[in-house]
Structures are given as C-alpha cells and as structure tokens.
Amino acid sequence: MQSAKTYPHNEGGNGRRGQGTAGEMAEQVADKAAEYAGKAGEQIERAVEGADATIRSVAEHGREAGERVQEVAGNFKSAVNKSVKDQPMATLAVVGALGFVLGALWKS
C-alpha cells in the first residue's frame, strides 16, 4: 500500500492553504527582505569605510609628494643661485641649451 503524501499547499482539498499560512509567508518574506537589507547595508558600510581609508591614504601621499616637490624646488633654486654666482657663463650656456631643446620640442 502506498500512502498519499500531504503537502501544505494541497491541504483541505480546495487548493487553499490553511488559515494563517499566507500571513506566515508574508512574514517570512518580510523577515528575509529585512535580513538581506541588513546584509546589503553592512556591505555598503564596509565599502564606504574602505573608500574613506583609501581617500585618506591618497591625501596623505599627495601631501608628502607636495612636500618633496617643495624641497626639490628649494634645492634647485639654491643650486641655480650658486651656479649663477660661481659660473655665470656656464649657467647661461645651460639655459640656452635648455631653451633650444624646449623650442625644438614645442615646434614638433
């Protein structure tokens, strides 16, 4: 003998579920939606925190690079001033050659 299996959706024989089942399903759907919304919120929060950390890191590197550029510019200015005082003709020749190269690059 085979026994007939009963499924919750076939109970009662009229194609309807028992009372409260639709409400229970709606509650389950709402619970799952809330769970997924919570997980999505956590993921977004982690992404925002990661972006904040990246922005802070990039800003710090940019600030350090700016400080280094200022230091190099100061060193270059000192070197040029010393060169102008010690060897004015050599400095003039270097500036002329540099101007020639820049002019050639600009023209092409």
Could you characterize the architecture of this molecule?
The protein is an all-alpha fold and 108 residues long. 0% of the residues are buried. Helix 1 (21-86) packs across helix 2. It has two helices and no strands. It is rod-shaped, with a radius of gyration of 38 Å. The protein has one domain. Helix content is 80%, strand content 0%.
What are the key terms here?
108 residues, rod-shaped, 2 helices, mainly alpha, 80% helix
Write the layout of secondary structure elements.
Blueprint (H helix, E strand, L loop, with lengths): L20 H66 L1 H20 L1
Helix pairs in contact: 1-2
In short:
Helix content is 80%, strand content 0%.
Total domain units: 1
| H/E topology pattern | HH
Q: Can you tell me the overall shape?
A: rod-shaped
Instruction: Name the poorly predicted regions.
Output: 10-15
Cα-to-Cα separation, first versus last residue: 96 Å
Please state the average pLDDT score. 83
Largest sheet: none
Count of helix runs: 2
Tally of DSSP β-strands: 0
Computed over alpha carbons, the radius of gyration is: 38 Å
Secondary-structure-based class equals mainly alpha
Strand content is under 5%
Helix fraction by DSSP (H/I, runs of at least 4)? over 70%
